[in-house]
Write a structure and sequence with these properties.
The complex is a heterodimer of chains A (89) and B (302). With 89 residues, chain A is an alpha+beta fold. Chain A has two helices and four strands. Helix content of chain A is 11%, strand content 18%. Chain A is globular, with a radius of gyration of 15 Å. Chain B is of the alpha/beta class and 302 residues long. Helix content of chain B is 39%, strand content 17%. In chain B, strand 1, helix 3 and strand 2 form a beta-alpha-beta unit. Chain B starts with a helix and ends with a helix. Classes of the chains: A alpha+beta (89), B alpha/beta (302). At the A-B interface, helix 1, helix 2 and strand 4 of A face helix 1, helix 2 and helix 9 of B.
Chain lengths: 89, 302
């Protein structure tokens, strides 16, 4: 197995949505996340992130966003009412 | 791996109160995410999907997603779904049921939906307990487990949902877990895509009601239990009988290609409506009937 590139991501955690269950903290393979004093997840070691996507998929509250560095929020990609999404510039 | 959460946010109804009502670390949120991801992967539009949910913690899922949704009575999600599918076979109808919904009060609906092979996808969220009503033992509580109503251990055996659905004649039977999410995405997508009745049993943790009484103090402990005990079916089959213990096989169990009921019904309709087929004349009202109706019409209002 080749080593995955580290530190290529930005992680956003929505504190209002996070309930502090600790799943992401416990199972993160690179130990990037930690529980803060308020009981909610926060990013402790951003440079270690290997962009595996575990926390995004396993967050029951949809509170974690992992993005490639410098990427912006994209336009909605879901098909609405039978129309295919159009890229907004 | 990016964009997963943003994608899910596109499919949520943001006028409902978020964060959702599930307990911290409840697997239902993960199932909701997996469902949205698999629908997106299949390229279905929001109007093509109908989510039918019963009563229970899992019933709340229908309120949060921006598809056509129905929140039905307890145990009757599959009956509503059967009607919807027969009326509009183009819809992808997905029912979300808990274990109480699917196995206890709606047990008969489940086996008959499987027997009919109606083209509905059933997601059964099995958390081994009646979570919403206070932690009573359910039909899927494992033997020996402690619950609110069985403080000395459950004496009855648990239902095996997968075997039951397969025996009842379901077209596709799958089991996934909330820890093995990539596999779950794949299974749900396959179940939605394939014809006939497809059932996915999803092992989700309920640490609030089940875990705390059974030595799993937190959600993380429950997820560790799932990680340890859910093994792929091939691996499970290779294990000797003595080592299986409380391990559960996950993966694909049954995959058949029988036509769904709504397909057979559509074919019947096409057969009966073919051109050149003699069509019976519409019945003329008999003389007596015509006279009666005339009398009614001519009656003067009092």
């Amino acid at each position: 197995m080749t080593k995955k590139a580290k530190g290529q991501t930005e992680i956003t955690i929505y504190p209002d949505w996070c309930k502090g269950c600790g799943i992401c903290v416990e199972f993160c393979p690179a130990k990037v996340l930690a529980l803060g004093r308020d009981g909610k997840a926060r990013v402790a070691r951003l440079d270690e992130c290997i962009n595996c996507g575990f926390c995004e998929r396993h967050c029951p509250d949809f509170a974690i966003v992992v993005r490639g560095k410098g990427r912006k929020r994209r336009a909605p990609a879901c098909a609405e009412n039978g129309e295919t999404p159009v890229d907004k510039e | 791996m990016a964009d997963i959460t943003e994608l899910i946010h596109d499919y949520l109804r943001h006028n409902k109160k978020f964060p959702h009502v599930f307990c911290a670390g409840c697997g239902h949120g993960i199932v909701l995410g997996a469902l949205i991801r698999s629908i997106h992967a299949l390229g279905l539009s929001k109007d093509e999907v109908c989510i039918v949910a019963g009563i229970g913690c899992s019933g709340r899922i229908a309120a949060y997603v921006d598809f056509n949704t129905v929140h039905t009575t307890h145990g009757r999600a599959l009956t509503f779904a059967t009607g919807i599918k027969m009326a509009n076979p183009k819809l992808k109808v997905i029912t979300i049921m808990g274990d109480g919904d699917a196995m206890s009060i709606g047990g008969n609906h489940l086996i008959h939906a499987a027997r009919r092979n109606i083209g509905v996808t059933a997601l059964v969220l099995n958390n081994n307990i009646y979570g919403m009503t206070g932690g009573q033992c359910s039909a899927t509580t494992p033997q020996g487990a402690t619950t609110q109503t069985t403080p000395f251990g459950q004496m009855e055996k648990a239902f095996d949902i997968v075997t039951l659905a397969a025996a009842a004649g379901a077209n596709g039977v799958y089991r996934g877990s909330t820890f093995h999410v990539n596999m779950l995405d794949r299974l749900v997508a396959t179940a939605i895509e394939r014809p006939g009745f497809n059932l996915v049993e999803i092992i989700t943790p309920c640490h609030t009601q089940y875990g705390r009484k059974n030595k799993y103090k937190s959600a993380v402990d429950m997820f560790k239990w799932i990680k340890k005990n859910c093994v792929p079916k091939e691996k499970f089959d290779a294990l000797p009988e003595a080592d299986r213990g409380e391990k559960m096989p996950i993966g694909t169990f049954v995959e058949k290609d029988h036509k769904g009921l709504e397909q057979l019904y559509g074919e019947l309709q096409a057969r009966l409506n073919r051109p050149g087929r003699p069509v019976a004349e519409p019945e003329q009202p008999s003389a007596q009937h015509a006279e009666e109706s005339r009398n009614i019409m001519n009656k003067e209002p009092k």
